[in-house]
Write a structure and sequence with these properties.
Order of helices and strands: HEEEEEEHEEEEHHEHEHEEHHHHEEHH
Distance between the termini: 50 Å
Structural class: alpha/beta
Number of domains: 2
Number of helices: 12
CATH superfamily of the largest domain: Zn-dependent exopeptidases
CATH class of the largest domain: Alpha Beta
Shape: globular
Number of strands: 16
Helix content: 25-40%
Largest sheet: 6 strands, mixed
Radius of gyration: 24 Å
Strand content: 15-25%
Length: 429
Amino acid sequence: MPEASRKRSALTSVSLARRRAFGFLLLPAAQFALPSAWAGASAIASTRLWPAQEYTRVIFESSTPIEHQLVVLRNPDRFVLDLARIAPSRALDELPSHVQSSDPYIAAIRIGHPSDGFLRVVLDLKTEVRPQVFSLAPVAEYGYRLVIDLYPLVALDPLMALLAQDGFDGDRETMPPKASNAPSRDARKHEAPAPPRRRITVALDPGHGGEDPGAIGRRGTCEKNVVLAIARKLSRVIEADRSMRVMLTRNDDFYVPLAERVRKARRVQADLFVSIHADAFRDASARGSSVFALSEHGATSAAAGWLAQNENAADLIGGVNLDVKDRMLARTLLDLSQTAQISDSLKVGQEVLDIIGTHNVLHKATVEQAGFAVLKAPDIPSILIETAFISNPDEELKLRNPREQQRFADSIADGIHRYFAQSPPLARA
């Protein structure tokens, strides 16, 4: 089998060392002395908290399914979770210390004493929220997970956030007046009115996030962190050009489902979607940058197919509530002819790949194709960039280095500019 870019499968092991690197404790229940009444109870082996403006996620993990009851209370706002047949554990005791003052939704967490077969967890809230609670089956080395997602009552709209960057007043639905060096009235009589140039919108998608760290280097470097750093730098470079603007699918450490990344890009009517990743392979000598586009009919190589399969499985690790379905999105993404989108994706992908090749060795000199779920916006040219192999010690150091991150960002931005110079986006309302 040829050496190729391959990401660690979502179904392969998530190591204990990785969890320690996150700062969360994983201890077997047997290490805790339990009263005889609780001898048959399970223990919460690990707790994690992922705060973000878009939503805050709380995770309870156990070796057995977690039975629970929940109640939302008002005045003051709080979320009461009763865990059935769950014994006290150090992981639970340490959960309150994970709460950050910057968390937009959780003010504090309190752990009660076991009573009548239940152990109570109270989330004191800063504001009224829209909760989602669901369970996840074991995957990789994750056990059974109980997930609490706390969303704002009014979901954050990526389009309104983008318009706010342009000074749009959502309440008045007007743009603020801009200073203008307008010609005199007489001069304007002889001028044909020029249509205003709209700004090009680029959707940047840092891969993985939150519960899903992505690939992990030998020095413990998490893919989700380095690709977010590169995306932030790339955003600043692109927006330095006043004819362009950027929407980030995530600008913090939380997980965004693959379909939601596509929905966000379509909501802002993006002219280009760029998903940023860092590759991994079992052979530490594998190296180089790659760019991928969507394929309707099959992968251009076995490695591309393998990579797409593993990336598409990210929702298993990241944790997605399967009871919430966007039927409109499903219809949009199903059985659509994407010939034009794929053609444009290959063009922009090759421009980006050529420029990246001036900074980093290329794993393959041409754009590869496979069925990546995150590239399936039918009306947006979409590419996935594997910046480097995080499994290669030299390239891991490069990915960790802020100067090298900036060089990756500059290279990608140059490729994007070259593409739009040759293929200006169509006018839109």
